[in-house]
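Hi X.,

You mentioned you wanted examples for the new student's onboarding notes, showing what a folding record looks like when two proteins sit in one file. Here is a clean example. The first protein comes first, with its sequence line followed by its C-alpha cells.
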Amino acid sequence: MPEAKSFPLPSDLKVVPGTEAAQASYPYYTQFVPEDDQKFWFYNSMHFPEPMHHFDMITAEAAYVALGAFNTRVHVLPTAKGIEHRVINGRVYIGGVAVTDPAEIGERVEQFQQRAFYYYEHWEKLYDQWKVKMKTLIADAQALPKPSLPDYEPIETTHTGKGVASNHALLDIYQKQVEGYHRMWHHHFEFLLLGYGAYMTFFDFCKKAFPEISDQAISRMVAGMEAEIFRPDEEVKRLARRAVELGVDRHFTDGMNIDQVLAELEAVGNAGKEWLGELETSRNPWFNVSSGDGFYHYHRSWNDDLSLPFAALPGYIDKIKSGANIERPTEQLISEREQLVADYRELLDTDEDRATYDQLIGLAHRVFPYVEGHKFYCEHWYTNLFFNKIREFGALLRDHGFWEREEDVFHLTQYEVESAIIDLMLSWGIGAPPRGPQHWPAIVAQRKAAIEEWGKHPTSPALGAVPDVIDDPAIVMLWGITRDNLDSWLSDGDEDSNELKGFAACSGVVEGTARIVKSVEEIGRLQQGDILVCQVTNPTWSPIFQKISAAVSDIGGSMSHMAIVAREYGLPAVVGTGKATQRIKDGQRIRVDGGRGVVTILEDEPVLEEV
C-alpha cells in the first residue's frame, strides 16, 4: 500500500542553531507542542511573509483573538470555529478549528441564522455605525499623549490635589494603546467573515446550478466595487493630473529626491504651492496606508515615507500627457458583471431557483465592498498609528539608555515592553538608575541577529497530514488553501515541470520578464512591463500596477486581496501557486494565463509575436 503523502510534522521543524533563546522568547502559547503533530497547519505567508519581530506578534495575537471570538461565539459559523497560531523561526503557522459533529453543526446553524441574518438584514445601518466606531477609535488613539517624564512633577499636581504622579501616565498610555489595538481587531472581524460567508453561499449555489462555471466567472459577478482601500491610488492619480494642469509636472522624474522636489515646488511660486496644498489634502486621511499589509512595524505609511506614491507619479504623468486612460475599468467591470449575472440567470429552470439566485447575488453586492474597504481603516490607518505610538515609547526608553535606536523596542514582546516601562517608572520614582540599560541591549542584539538569520532559511508551506475537507470560508477564499492545492504542493513531479498551477484570478495571457519581489523594499526594482512575482501583495501596491503587465503570487485564493485588486485593475493574474517565488528565477521569461490559472516558465520557448 503506497504511503500517504504528508508535509513535515511540526516536531520535524528544528529551531535554527544559535537562535534558540530568541525562539523561546515568543509567548508560551505560540510555541509548538507534541500534540500539534496531530493537526494540519499552513504557513501564513499571506499576512506574515517575513520573520516576525517579537513585538509584531501582537498583530497575529490580536487578530486571532478577535477572529476566533466572532467565528465561534458571536456570529457562530456552523462548520468553522477559530484559527490557532504558532511561531517557529519567526514564521507564523495557522490551523483552523473545524466543527464535525452533526449535532453541534445543527445547533450552530440555528444560532447563526439568528445572529448573522440580523446583520445581513441591517447591513447598511450597522456598517454606517461601524465607520463611526472606527473613526472614534482612531481619534482616541491619536489623542493619547506622547509619553514623557519631567524632572519634577508640575506644581499643578500638588496645587490641584490631583493625587497621581506623571510616571503612572506611562502605564496608562501603554495599556490604552494595547487595548485599543485589540478592540480594533474586534471591529475588523465584526463584518468580514459574514462578507466571505455571503459570497461563499452564492459561490456554492453557482457551482451546483452551473457545474461548468469557473471560479473566475463567479468572482467577476462581484467585480467593479467602490471601496476606500482604492482611494489612495485615486488620490495619486489626482495629484498627477493637478501637476500637469499646474505646469509643475517636470519636477517628477524616476529616482527623484523627494525632499528636493518638495523644496523646489515651495520655491517656484504659486503653482508649486498650490500643488503642495493638494498633496496635503490627499495625505489626510488617504495617505494613512501602509506600504505593506499592515502587519509589520517597518511597513511605514505613505505619510511616513512618500516614496511609493511619488514613485507612481512620473508614470501617471506620462500617461496623462499622452492621452492614455489611467482610470480603473470600473464601468466595463460593472457592465460585464451585469451581463454575466443576466446570462447565468437565464440558465436557471425554476422561479424558486431564480429567486434564490437574485437574493444571493443581491446580498453579495451589498456586503462585498466591506471585504476590501475595512482594510483602509483597520490594517492601515489604525495599525500604522498604533506602531507609531509604540515608537514613542521606543524613543523614551532609548533616551533613558535602554537601547540605541527607538526601533529596538520592537525586539521586545508586548509584555516585555510593559515590564521595561515599569522599570522606568520605578527608576524615575525612586531616583535610582533603571535596570534596563544593563538588561536589554544584549537581548535586542541577539534577537536582531535571529531575525536576520531566520530570513535566510525557507520554511515548509504546510505541516502535518493533509485534511480530507477544508471548508473554513476564510481559509478557502482568502488563503486559497484547498485539498487540490495542497496535493499539487506535495506533487513530486512539480520540480520537473515548467508549469505552475494556481487560482485564475483575472483573465488575459501575457508574456514578459519575471521580477521576483520578496518585500516592500524591492518594489523599486520593477521595470515597465515586468511581471510581478511575489509571495503576496495588497491593495496599497496599486500604484505600481500601471508598471507591470501581470502578477503571480505564492499564496491566495479567489477572494484574496491580490485577486480582487487584479480584477479591479484588469490585470492578468494567477494566485496561490504555492512556490512561484522559489521556482521562477528573477529575470526569467514567463507566460501568465490568468484565465486558466497557469504560469509557464518559457526559458528557450519562442516568444509571442508583437502585435
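Then the second protein repeats the pattern, sequence line and then C-alpha cells:
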Amino acid sequence: MKHLRLIKQVQNYRSIAQASTRNFSQLNDSAENFRLSELFVKQYDPKVTGKGPVQFGFNGVGELAYRRSYSRVREVDGQQEDWHQTVERVVNGVFTVMVRHSNENNIKVDSHEQQKLARKMYEKIYNFKFLPPGRGLWAMGTNITEKKGLYAALNNCAFVSTKSDDVDGFIKSFTFLMDSSMMGVGVGFDTKGALLHKHRFYLPKDETIRIVIDDTREGWVRSLEQQLNSYLRPGQKKVVFDYSQIRPPGIPLKTFGGTSSGPEPLVQMHKYIDELAARFQNQVISTRQIVDIMNIIGKCVVAGNIRRVAEIALGEAEDSEFINLKNYKLNPDRMEYGWVSNNSIYAKLGMNYKEVAESIYKNGEPGLCWLENMQQYSRMGDPKDNRDHLAAGGNPCLEQTLESYEMCCLVETFPHNHNSYEEFEETLKLAFMYAKAVTLGLPHWDETAKVMARNRRIGCSMSGIAQFIGTRGVHELVNWCDQGYSYLKKYDSYLSKELFKIPESIKITSIKPSGTVSLLAGATPGVHFPLSANYIRRVRLGKSSHLIQPLLQAGYHIEDDQMDKQHTSVVEIPVSLGDNIRTLKEATMWEQLQVASLLQKHWADNQVSCTVTFDPEKGEDASQIEKALDYFQYQLKGISFLPKTKDVYPQMPYEEITKEEYHSKMQNIHQLRLDRSKDENFLKFIQTEQVISDPQPENYCDADKCKI
C-alpha cells in the first residue's frame, strides 16, 4: 500500500508539472498564483520610500555579485530587477508552488496566514537573514518553473551511480549528468559500473544512420544517448549526426541565460567519444572510460555556454587507475578534459591513509568520502540510525548525502546577522519552509521524482561561521546549532504532516561551501576561515557591462584584465572583516578540521563541505595529513585538502592588505549606486549600449570552486 501511495503521489506531481506548461499569461491570472500585495512591496521600493540603498555585504562586492548574477529582466517593463523586486519574485514563486500543491491535493489553507508568512519570508530575505541558493534567486518565480515546469533548475546538486547491469540504465547515468548539468545542477557520479565487468565498446556496422539534432537541451542530450547506444550494443548502425538545425554562435539563450555556442562543442563531444570507443573497442569499459565520458560531457556543457560545470568522480580507494587519472605524465591525453571533475575516493574506516596522504600533499587530491558514516549516521554526535542505508554518494561539494538519481535543494542562513537565538529560530523556520517547498515541484526524471518524493531531502546551511565564532565564541555556536536542529526536526514534522501532507525529510541540515550568495549577505563562506581580515577582492567584468560606469563613478579602481585586455576589466574592492576574526594565517589544519567536526556533530545530518588549507611551511606535511585522517575518520563524512600557495598569477581574486591600507583605499570610494532608476546618465548609457539582458547564474552549490 505504501508503494502504491508513493506512485500515486509521483503521478500527482507529474500532473502539476504538466499544468505548469500552460500559457504563462493565463497562469498569472489564475487562482493558482500567489502574489504579495503591491502595497506591501512598495514599502521596500527605494523610489517610493526614499530610503538609503540596500545594505549588501563587503563594500559593494555583494551588490556587484547580485547585479551580475541574479538581477533578471522584468517582463512588464524590460528593465532589470532591483533587490526588492527579486525578493518579490522569489517569494511569489515559492508560495505559488505551495498554493498549486494545496489545490492539487485538496489541502485547505488559510490565505491570510499565507500572506503573513510570505511577508515574513520577504523581510528575512530582503535583510539577508537567509537567502535561497543562487539557483533559487535566479530561477524561482520565472518561466523556467512557472511555464516550463523545469523544477530541477531550483536544485543545487545531484548524484548518479553507473552501477547497472542493464545497458539502458548504464547509458542513462551519462544522459542524466548531461541533462542536469545543462540546467546548472552539479552532479556527482561513481565508477561502480566498471566493477561489473559487463559493458564494453562494440564496433558499429559499416551501415550508417543519419540523425538531425534538435536545437534544444533535449536534442543535445538525445544525441549523446543515440551515440552511446551505437557503441554499447552489438550490431548497431554507425550514427552520423546532422548539426544544421543548431543555432549559430552568439544567439541569446532565453531559458538559462548566456549566448549560444553554435554546434562546435557538441561536435567535439561526439568526436571525443568516437575516438574513445575506437581506441578501446571490444574492451570491457573501465574506471577510466567512465570518468572520461563524464568529463567529456562536462567540457561540452562548459563550452556550450552554461557557464560552469561541477562534477565529482567517486572511485574505489584501491583502484590505482582511478587514483592516477590526473597524473598527466601517465595520461597526457586526459589534460583536454580531466580538469572537469574533482576526484575523491570512497574511504573505508580503518584503512591505511599513508598513500592517500602523500598524494594529497603532492597534488591536492583525492578528497575522501566515508560512505559508511553517510549511510549510518545523521549527525555524527547522535546514535547510528541507518536512515540513509540506500545512499550511494554525494554532490560535487559533498555537503549532501544522496541516493542515485537524487537531487537536493540547499538554503543558506547567516547566524552572524542575528542579534539573538530567538530571532535566528524564526529565520530557520522560514528558510526551512523555502527549501521544503522546493521539493513540491518534482523534476522531470521519473527516477529522480520517485526518490525525491520519498526522501524530501534538503540542506539548511549556515555561512559566516568564522565571523560568529569571532564575536560570540564556539560555545554559543554549539548552543545555536543544537537548539536550531532540535527545532527544525519538530517543525519538519508539523510542516510535512499538517501543511504539505508529504513525508518528513530524511535529512535536513548541511554546511555548503557557499560563495556568491554569502557575498550578498557579507558573510564568510560556509565553515571556511578567510584569507585575511583585510583584503582586496577582485571581480572580473566584461568591458561592455553596465556595471562598469557606476563603479568608476564611486571611485573603485578598475584596470584591464592582463589575460584579456580587449574584453575584460578587473574591479578592485577593499574589504574588511573587522578585528575579531581568525584567518587562515592563524587557523592550523587541525583547527579547521576541528570546526568541521564540531558542525558535523552538532548541526549537519547531511555533511559539512570543508576544504582544509594546509601550510607545508608550518610542518603540515603528508605525515600530519595521515595522522589527521586517522583521527577524524570517525567524526566526518567527507573532507578535502588544499596546499596553501602564494600569489601564482597576477590579479588574484584575493590579495591580503593591512588595516591601514584598507582605510587608505576607502577614502577614495563613495557610495556605490547601482540603482539605474535614478541616474539619467546611466540610463542613457544603458540605452546606448543595449546591455539589458538576463544574467548568467552562479550554479551548483554557489562556491567559486568545489575543491572536494
